[in-house]
């Protein structure tokens, strides 16, 4: 199992939302085809086939719990991460 697959499993199970590194979350979003803009500490992610805009900010190097849940819900809604090669 690759690092990306392991991280996706960690993200989608929801058992460690408080321990997701912000940098890991940004990396997976970039890997899955989201475009990133940075404005101060706001990292704004968009993708053509996703209606929602993700506006993320780090908190002590980690992702905020509610933002991790938001991303998980978007991945489920749009079936993102189901295929290895998106």
Q: Beta-strand level of the residues, as a percent range?
A: 25-35%
What's the overall average pLDDT, rounded?
Answer: 94
N/C terminus separation: 17 Å
Write down the overall geometry. globular
The largest sheet has its strands arranged as 1-2-3
Give a brief description:
Helices cover 41% and strands 26% of the residues. The protein is built from 3 helices and 5 strands. It has a 3-stranded antiparallel β-sheet with strand order 1-2-3, covered by helices on one side. Strands 4-5 form a two-stranded antiparallel ribbon.
Describe the structure.
The chain is 41% helix and 26% strand. It is built from three helices and five strands. It has helices at 3-13, 22-31, 65-78; strands spanning 35-39, 42-47, 50-56, 58-59, 62-63.
Q: What key attributes describe this structure?
A:
single chain, 86 residues, alpha+beta, 3-stranded antiparallel sheet, two-stranded antiparallel ribbon, 5 strands, globular
Topology (SSEs and partners):
Layout: H1 3-13, H2 22-31, E1 35-39, E2 42-47, E3 50-56, E4 58-59, E5 62-63, H3 65-78
Antiparallel strand pairs: 1-2, 2-3, 4-5
């Amino acid at each position: 199992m690759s690092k990306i697959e392991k991280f996706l499993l960690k993200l989608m199970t929801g058992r460690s939302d408080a321990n997701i590194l912000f940098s890991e979350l940004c990396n997976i979003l970039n890997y899955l085809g989201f475009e990133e803009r940075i404005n101060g500490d706001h990292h704004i992610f968009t993708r053509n086939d996703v209606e929602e805009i993700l506006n993320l900010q780090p908190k002590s190097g980690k992702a905020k719990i509610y933002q991790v849940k938001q991303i998980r819900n978007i991945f489920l809604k749009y079936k993102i991460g189901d295929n290895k090669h998106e």
